[in-house]
Write a structure and sequence with these properties.
By secondary structure, this protein is α/β, with parallel strands linked by helices. The chain has helices spanning about 25-35, 70-75, 100-105, 120-130, 135-150, 165-175, 195-210, 225-230, 245-255, 270-275, 295-305, 320-330, 335-340, and strands spanning about 10-25, 40-55, 60, 85-90, 105-110, 185, 215-220, 230-235, 240-245, 255-265, 280-285, 285-290, 310-315.
Amino acid sequence: MSRVAAVPTVRVQGLTKTYSVHDKQPGLMGSVRSFVRRQTRAVNAVQEVNFSLEPGEMVGFLGPNGAGKTTTLKMLSGLLHPSGGRVQVAGFEPRRRQTDFLRSITLVMGQKQQLIWDLPAHDTFLVNQAIYEIPDEQYRATLREFTEVLELDGLLNKQVRKLSLGERMKCELAAALLHRPSVLFLDEPTIGLDVNMQLSVREFVREYNRRHHATVMLTSHYMADVTALARRILVIDAGRLVFDGDLGGLVERGSAEKTVKLQLGRPASAADLGRYGRVVRLDGLNAELSIPRSQVSAQAGRLLNELEVADLTVEDPPIEEIIGRLFGQKADLPPAEAARG
């Protein structure tokens, strides 16, 4: 018996968003001219973006500031109307903002809050229960689950203003997911949090995905968030999708070299080490070389045979560095060619 292919939870075809921006020259005369004849120009925030997400898939959505990430998420959640293209999320057209659609999704923005500042977080939870018409039994069960996973004991009855940033973010996540949405759009959910709190938020998102088979689209400038949660990566730059593939493919395409870290048994000069690869760092007995991928095995063998090496490790460059290179390499490519990688 043939398997029936799953219907994508999110389907985006030719998604485009264009803004009309007012151009004004500086000074009084610029203001007068602008008043008499207003000049505008079109700015393409998102251009012909295509992708689909399967049920239960967790995807990292990366790009520099101003690349179009938040604009895309706002169109997927129905807060912005596209200028062109088609979008379908959980079987709905987001721009129509139907009640069943709103019950199926959530948008969490790390720089925005929905908690009522002067009231305990639990009061906001009760407001959301009423808005989403969550049955009492389901509400209590979900609250118990979130309290356990996010360690909310002692937080829900404190004024929001008295919570730390990390405690507030945990309560924000709980409030946003009380209605058990099947699609999560997370825009910088760990921004400003310390390392331990970032880990706590990541574990919660992973556990929610596991328990509820939710589709998750995550943007973050903390690469640890993305590498811990997502196997598939979408990269957007200047409004165009420039990469769509797994993390390993991104690393391989974004860097033609690997990093070889050495701990030497005796000192070696930069000239000595330069025979094996580009010397990135040399600090006493510790060194770091950059070597083309195709030559790593041969050069590592030479290093072990010809120098006194106490330890040798081979690593890929930092993912931040790889993505930075990708932006530079792909900026001038047509979107279809760039996204294929």
